[in-house]
UniProtKB/TrEMBL annotation:
It comes from the Eukaryota. Residues 1-27 are annotated as: Disordered. It catalyses: [protein]-peptidylproline (omega=180) = [protein]-peptidylproline (omega=0). It comes from Vitis vinifera. One of its GO terms (molecular function) is peptidyl-prolyl cis-trans isomerase activity. It is found in: Cytoplasm. The keyword Iron does not apply. This is Serine/threonine-protein phosphatase 2A activator. The keyword Isomerase applies.
Amino acid sequence: MDPHQHQPIGQADETSPPPSNTAATSCRCCGGPTTCPPPPAWSDISPPPSYRPIRAPAINLPPSNSQQAIILAPVPQAQKTPVVSPPYLFQIPVKRIQTPDDIRHFHDSDSGKNFLGFVVSLSESIRSHKISDPCHQSPILNSILSILQSLIDWVDEIPPVQQSSRYGNLSFRVWQSRLFDNSEQLMLQFLPDDLRSATVELVPYFADSFGNSSRIDYGTGHETNFAAWLYCLARLGLLKEEDYQALVSRVFVKYLELMRKLQFVYCLEPAGSHGVWGLDDYHFLPFIFGSSQLIDHKYMKPKSIHNQDILDNFSKEYMYISCIAFVKQVKKGLFAEHSPLLDDISGVPNWNKVNSGMLKMYKAEVLEKVPIMQHFLFGWLIKWD
């Protein structure tokens, strides 16, 4: 393994005084040895003064044994999405996950393996490609882009209301109400006649992809629902493998544009955010796809995120760079203080290691967390076996 500088998650900066008792631990992303103490739990340390979390994290930073489990876990592998065939047995999807045993059941099932494999396939499809690179765009994919653009336009038509609360603008509920009222018609814009009944399953995933109207928040669970909606379309055979690159570089980029706008205009709170110790207050998947884009790049390395010229000139072409630029835009102060995990990852020697580490983290930190997955839905396209 190439040597690189490691810092434990939560270490403030190079000027921090050295700890009195050091212990050998591992870099969370690549597993390299360090001589730094393990990261403190949330209750053991105050957030940096330059950052005020919107709410306390729903899920604290995992203990060191969980970090080690992530490092030692196998890297998730791509899987071919199985396409369903008649007779179609579409049903209203419902929640099934309540306990850690349910989580294990899901990941041991074909549904769990296929869904994660779909995410890995999307990641591989964008490997070493810029966002602007030419790619296949099917008519259905163009219809999805048109739908997302309509949702963006709705934000302009539903301005935020004046209110005393800084976060959670009530106009988001008006936007969500329009979404719920029109979701089925939006699906019917591209569904062929023999699959029109699939709206009973597609609409719940789609409608829950953009945040919660009651709490006026958004998080990785909603982002996972959007990935599940795309997975269901792939299960129906409407999206094929040749569409995957465009799903990331066109559809997911447009989805990210929409979510950034919703977060800004309606001041959405992070849903169950890890707070200052997390990867990002809202998103995870763009870091997976973005790190895949940069694999084997001749010039940009993980440490390049600290170069402002890189952020200014390449954020429109690389999702990872765009995410770092966005974080620096919305959070003030030292990067190592408000985003210690991202700062940690910048010391990993290459993007391949970052990408494989991100995939393992996504499985462990999102798809294996009951507080997130308890809201995940199961129907006929994503079965609870």
